[in-house]
Amino acid sequence: xxxxxxxxxxxxxxxxxxxxxxxxxxxxxxxxxxxxxxxxxxxxxxxxxxxxxxxxxxxxxxxxxxxxxxxxxxxxxxxxxxxxxxxxxxxxxxxxxxxxxxxxxxxxxxxxxxxxxxxxxxxxxxxxxxxxxxxxxxxxxxxxxxxxxxxxxxxxxxxxxxxxxxxxxxxxxxxxxxxxxxxxxxxxxxxxxxxxxxxxxxxxxxxxxxxxxxxxxxxxxxxxxxxxxxxxxxxxxxxxxxxxxxxxxxxxxxxxxxxxxxxxxxxxxxxxxxxxxxxxxxxxxxxxxxxxxxxxxxxxxxxxxxxxxxxxxxxxxxxxxxxxxxxxxxxxxxxxxxxxxxxxxxxxxxxxxxxxxxxxxxxxxxxxxxxxxxxxxxxxxxxxxx
Length: 386
Description:
It contains 19 helices and no strands. The protein is mostly helical.
């Protein structure tokens, strides 16, 4: 029989799994909880009110049997398809360079900029040549500083800043510590996550909410706010990589099998494949089982010199929260709070479950109140008027 501590850990694991379900869709999360969605319509009601003739009953029974057989065959085809997909994903996860450069498209200039920002000798001139190599980041920074609220702060004429170099100087190092990694994380998100239409937005929201919460907690505890922000933000990196990888490999293998079935004239297999879409349960399990390890390997490849992220993520991966260092505990607590926040927004967590989770990670009441009063949806940039 499981001990009380083991039972609590199992309940916390279930809540974390529920959050991963939510990333793939509210209805999927409800299904995993056992909710049954019912549909009431006048046509259904009227159909049930009349008695079916014997011939209709026989026809309906035959259709039900055929549908059942088709669904069973489709499930078998999907299982076989995902066995091939799983082997392909496992193989590609072994190729870290491909995952880093091709799947996510991480450019070396990004971790180099983040590392410079973490150094005591950080200065804008060291960042300029790097941001010039990242056209997408330059555009983001220029667009940011030209938002109406920041243009008005510069002077009454609201002069427009049109180069990344000027944007860097206007923002300053403190703001760049938040904006550069945030824009990088957004850039690495999948362009499309269909058929999981909200996955991209939820991954972005999850990363941002966790990172801002970690930053707020770290400052309150007199810890390194920048390190906490980056560590919390990049915790979602493994899920981003796995989502990109799964959706890409699914499409490649699925298209090849559809083409082969068509060329071979196998109509049953072709029809079954046409009805198969990416599986939320499979992707959820990828998130749960592999995302943390993928995150750790990707961050290790970034080779930070001034950010202790490798040790921090290794510490976070420990199963028991009381073994965490203070810095890791802050990120674990921020992660717990941000996940509860999203689950609560979708009515997927009860008050007693949240209380259990808060207690498990050691999130104290004063810090809960701090996070409840903080703006966890947008960066609090402090820009002095020039």
